[in-house]
Design a protein that fits this description.
This protein is mostly helical. The protein is 70% helix and 0% strand. It has one domain (2-99). The protein contains three helices and no strands. α1 packs antiparallel against α2.
Length: 105
């Protein structure tokens, strides 16, 4: 749980300026420029995390995994990490181009 939490923290730090400058939400952040939209998004993610923890069973025994299952899980994790970091970089570049007054992409 520590690694996904750290990846989420890194992604949220990168995405904060995009939320602040471009995302609007009715009733919370009607105009861009306020940080409210980011905090509503973060609260939603925290709510999802709470729901996920409610379904955890600490008494469940873990089964053994075959080497192929381990490889598949590793491949899925690496793919998710690459997509997350790549998406964050694209959002950051796009935001910086908008700030510089250039048309993104």
């Amino acid at each position: 749980m520590n690694l996904p939490g750290n990846l989420g923290a890194a992604f949220s730090a990168i995405s904060f300026p995009v939320f602040r400058d471009h995302v609007t939400l009715p009733f919370f952040a009607a105009t861009p420029g306020a940080a409210n939209s980011f905090f509503v998004f973060a609260a939603g993610l925290n709510t999802l995390a709470i729901l996920a923890w409610l379904f955890m069973n600490p008494r469940r025994k873990t089964g053994t995994m075959t080497p192929m299952q381990v490889r598949i899980r590793l491949a899925l994790f690496v793919t998710a990490a690459v997509l997350l970091v790549g998406g964050a970089q694209i959002c950051t570049r796009r935001h910086l181009m908008v700030l510089a007054g250039r048309e993104p992409f």
